[in-house]
Structure formats: C-alpha cells, structure tokens
Amino acid sequence: MSERHPGSDDWHPWGPAQEPRREPTWATPSETRPYQPISGSWSEQPRPPQGADDWPWSEPGAVGGGAQPPGPPQQEPRRRGPGWGAFVGGLVAVGLLAGTTGGVVGGFLTDGSPSGSTSRTAPVPTPGAGSTTRPEGSIANIAATALPSVVTLRVGGGATGSGWVYDDAGHVVTNNHVVESAGDDEIVVVLANGEQVTGRVVGQDASYDLAVVEVTGAELSPLPIGRSAQVVVGDQVIAVGAPLGLDSTVTTGIVSALDRPVTPGAADDQSFINAIQTDAAINPGNSGGPLLDMGGAVIGVNTAIARVPGSGLGGGQSGNIGVGFAIPSDQVATTVEQLIETGTAEHPVIGVYLDSGYQGEGVRVADEGPDGAPAVNPGGPAEAAGLRAGDVIVAFEGQPVTEGGELVVKIRSRRVGDTVTLTVRRDGGEKDVRMVLQGSD
C-alpha cells in the first residue's frame, strides 16, 4: 500500500484496468449531487418501478392511536429511495410507522369468518402442567428483564413507534422518523406498566435516523449497550417493540447479514445506515425498538423492513417477510452521546462531489460541483490525499463500492478522525490512498 498522494509525480498506472461492470439495474443516478455526509446533502433520485430489481426503502413506522376506527394499517411509507446492488429480487424496504390495529387484531382473535365470530372452545389449563422456571439466558428471562426498559411513543396525529431507555437521566432512544412530526410538541411515552408520561425531543439526526427523547417524572431502568462489532451472522437476536400498536411485543430470529447499505428516505431527508439484517419479525410500529443479543444487550435499533412492491395493505405498508434492518449499536452509541450533548450529530466526510450520472464500475468524482464549485473540496481529506475530478473510487477499505449511496454508508459508519483507505482508478491504473475523515454537521 502506497501512502504517497496520487497527485505526486509517482502516480502512474501500476495495474491493468478492469473490465467495466454490467450496467446496474437499480436506481440509476440522473444528476450530480454533493457528496457531503450531512442530512439531505446527497442522494440518488428514485427511478420508476421496473419490476424485480427495484428496492425502495421506508421505515417500519408508527401505529395509529386506539381511538382510530377499525381497519388495517393505512399509513403510507414515509420515505422511499434507492436500494443497493447486492439485492436481486422485487423487494421494497419500508419504514416502521404503522396504522390502526383494530381490524388486524380482530382478525387474529377469530377463526377468520366474515362475521368475526368463533366457535372454538377455550382450552382448560391443567394444574401443574408446564414449568415456571426458565434456564438462565433463555428468551423468556431476557424478555422479562428488557421489557420494563422498552417504551411506546405516541406522537401527534395518532402515530406510534417504539423506544428504549438509554441512561438513568431519562433519555430514550428512538428513530428520527418516529418523532420528526412532533416539532416542539410533547410526546406521550407509554411505559411497560401502562403508565403514561410526557417527553420532549432533545436531539435528532435524519442522516443516522436516530433521535433522543427526554422523559421526566418516571423511574426508568436503562438497557445495557452491546458491541455490534462483535456480532456475527447466525447470532440469535430478540426484537422488542410495539408492532401495529401492540405494546411489549417480543419476537426472535438470527442475524441474517451484516453491513447492509440501507438508504431509506427522500432526497431531502435520507438516511445512510450500515445495517444489521435480521429475520426476527419486525412490523410497522417497531421503529426505534431495540434489537437484543442473547445477553440482553442492545446491538441495534430497528429501523426498516423490506416488502414486496405492491404488497402493502390497502396501498400502505406490508408486514414482516423476514427481512428487517437495524442500526448497529456502535453507531447508535456514538451518535446518541452527541445528540444528548449538543442536539445534533457530526458526520464524517471525505469532501468530494460525486457524478451521479456515471454508470461504470465504482463511483466517479464529478468534474465540478454545484454552480461551478470544485469537485474536490479545498482543504478536505480527498484533496489532501491527492484525489482529482474524474477519479473513480472502486473500493473502500478493500471492499468494492458500486454506487454513491453505498460509499456514503461506508464512510458514515466510521468516526470523524478515522483513517480510511480508498482504492482509486485513474488513467487505467489503480492505487490505494489514505485519508483522515473530517466532520460536517
């Protein structure tokens, strides 16, 4: 690995150029956007649905309040955006805000007859059958310990999401998209015991889709924070939250994949998440709830699910199909501390504008930025490393990158001050360059 800048005299093709990749079939960029990891600073424009290769996103949103008339969830997905190249198949990632549950619950509590009546006879409990003791580390014991620390958040308009207690000071972590409509209004926080207290947003960040709500007047017990960097594919996990408004719901599954670049959101409100993928049942209303390991520690914050296009109930969101996504706890811990301290979060950047019309392999640095600005920001990390307009970034830390959103996700999964290595192609050759990430609001 060379640490010399590509702008120096020894920059020359030292490896053969690779064959151009097949034109991608997902969310083709249509215009140049600034590559600044700040809220709404860069995005690809979603293209019209083209069948099996489209992967729009949105969150597993909020659930309507109990006063709503019966009916299936009707909340439209809040945000949609491009997917990533690794996905092949017609799925849509949706957010986790949900609608009213009256009709859904009614259906599940009956035989499914049109009248809603049932002829089933309730079983008679057998005294002494079963055991009330559970082995240490069982799902039942983990759930019993975690449930008092998981809350339901009710925001104006009847929307409902989930959250969990972060510290003894009354800070509750949730998704930004759960509370973004609250503004300066108070939020109703429903504790596991049914008690209702008020909360207010003290910090939020759309880019990481995280928010902190401060709760007063209640004794809260925080959940321990685990290390998502130690999670491996196949680990058992537990999701806790309020799917479809059903408080204190516990589901289980495994870690299906790691480092999934998930970019839900519209161009002006897009999130960039290096997500944990899980098959634990996550549904509308789970947004902001914790994903726990088998030690009961938070390893992620549930934030998005995938669905088949056109499968939403009544044109709205669909439910779980075994493809859910969580923000890794290492990212959560870093961001939440900043939100508590300052109300905002800092985002790592390299300081370039990307050519979103480029369709070749990797990600191309634009010829110029908006209004004729330099494509490589003066004084930024990329300039210090010698990057130029027209350079093509083909890998980040040795991992190939195929589109701009994926590169942004990888950068934002790091911290300001981290040193990273990019593989850059120029004039038919490739070279590794190192740079120190700077911070941007």
Key traits:
six-stranded antiparallel beta barrel; 441 residues; globular; Thrombin, subunit H; mainly beta; six-stranded antiparallel β-barrel
Secondary structure: elements and pairs:
Elements: E1 33-35, E2 92-95, H1 102-108, H2 139-146, E3 150-155, E4 159-165, E5 171-174, H3 176-179, E6 187-190, E7 196-205, E8 210-215, E9 236-241, E10 249-262, E11 273-278, E12 290-292, E13 298-307, E14 324-328, H4 329-342, E15 347-349, E16 352-354, E17 363-364, H5 381-384, E18 392-396, E19 399-400, H6 404-412, E20 419-426, E21 429-436, E22 438-440
Antiparallel strand pairs: 1-16, 2-13, 3-4, 3-6, 4-5, 5-8, 6-7, 7-8, 9-10, 9-12, 10-11, 11-14, 12-13, 13-14, 15-22, 17-18, 18-19, 18-20, 20-21
Explain what this protein looks like in three dimensions.
- The chain has 441 residues and is mainly beta.
- The protein has two domains: 1-36 and 351-441, Roll (Pdz3 Domain), CATH 2.30.42; 51-107 and 149-341, Thrombin, subunit H (Beta Barrel).
- It is built from six helices and 22 strands.
- The protein has helices spanning 102-108, 139-146, 176-179, 329-342, 381-384, 404-412, and strands at 33-35, 92-95, 150-155, 159-165, 171-174, 187-190, 196-205, 210-215, 236-241, 249-262, 273-278, 290-292, 298-307, 324-328, 347-349, 352-354, 363-364, 392-396, 399-400, 419-426, 429-436, 438-440.
- The longest helix is centred in the last third of the chain and has 14 residues, at 329-342.
- The chain is globular and about 70 Å long.
- Mean pLDDT is 75; it is low at 1-58, 62-94 and 98-122.
